[in-house]
Amino acid sequence: MAESPGTFDTGAKAVPTGRGPDSRRSERVVRRRRASIVANIRGQPERFPCLIVDSSQSGFRLRGLFSKLRRGQSIEVIPEDEPFNTVSCNVVWTGALGSKQEGQIGVHAEKG
Length: 112
Description:
CATH superfamily: predicted glycosyltransferase like domains
Mean pLDDT: 82
Shape: globular
Radius of gyration: 14 Å
Structural class: mainly beta
Largest sheet: 6 strands, antiparallel, barrel
Number of domains: 1
CATH class: Mainly Beta
Low-confidence stretches: 1-23
CATH architecture: Beta Barrel
Strand order of the largest sheet: 3-4-5-8-7-6
Number of helices: 0
Strand content: over 45%
CATH topology: Thrombin, subunit H
Order of helices and strands: EEEEEEEE
């Protein structure tokens, strides 16, 4: 299948990048894996279930109920099938109410 500008083929589904084909540093891979995140809310750690929508070398796009999270906040992503393989991340963006990204967040994995 030929790729059009702004998409790449994951083997299962072409995922639009929202930019030109050469602007992403790493490709996104569609995951659809259950996970949870742990975030400090008002000084207390809270766990939220979520779905890993896709991932790249630098982070994840997650779907869940994230109204308490803010850009720049530190979180831990815990894949359900690998609970001892947690990933420390920072929230990069949150989906705006009424947008296609509502209920989603983008997180950048910390190097470590």
